[in-house]
């Protein structure tokens, strides 16, 4: 065989060996980290208190205001605006 072919095979074998060595080290390093620092599930947040229900009369008062804001935001296409349902949160 020529020297160039022998050199290229040698370099390829060394490169593949180094890659597998680094991957093996990474695998064991990750396993050690998992063993030393196990995953802890975060604590569940306390349930938030539900806001008090808004009386229906107040919601009815907000509908024209919401319509006016949407009409000013949409501009000329506000003629086709129709508020069908509003659900308070």
Labels describing this entry:
89 residues; mainly alpha; elongated
* Biggest sheet details: none
**How much helix is in the residues?**
55-70%
Low-confidence stretches: none
Query: What string, H for helix and E for strand, traces the elements in order?
Result: HH
Strand content: under 5%
Mean pLDDT, all residues = 81
Morphology call: elongated
- Count of extended strands: 0
- Radius of gyration equals 34 Å
Number of helices: 2
Content-based structural category: mainly alpha
Question: End-to-end distance, in Å?
Answer: 80 Å
Question: Mind explaining what this structure looks like?
Answer:
The longest helix has about 35 residues. With about 90 residues, this protein is mainly α. The protein contains 2 helices and no strands.
């Amino acid at each position: 065989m020529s020297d160039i072919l022998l050199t290229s095979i040698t370099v390829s074998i060394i490169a593949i060996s180094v890659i597998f060595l680094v991957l093996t080290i990474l695998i064991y390093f990750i396993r050690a980290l998992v063993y030393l620092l196990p995953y802890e599930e975060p604590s569940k947040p306390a349930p938030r208190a539900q806001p008090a229900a808004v009386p229906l009369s107040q919601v009815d008062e907000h509908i024209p205001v919401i319509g006016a804001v949407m009409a000013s935001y949409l501009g000329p296409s506000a003629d086709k605006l129709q508020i069908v349902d509003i659900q308070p949160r």
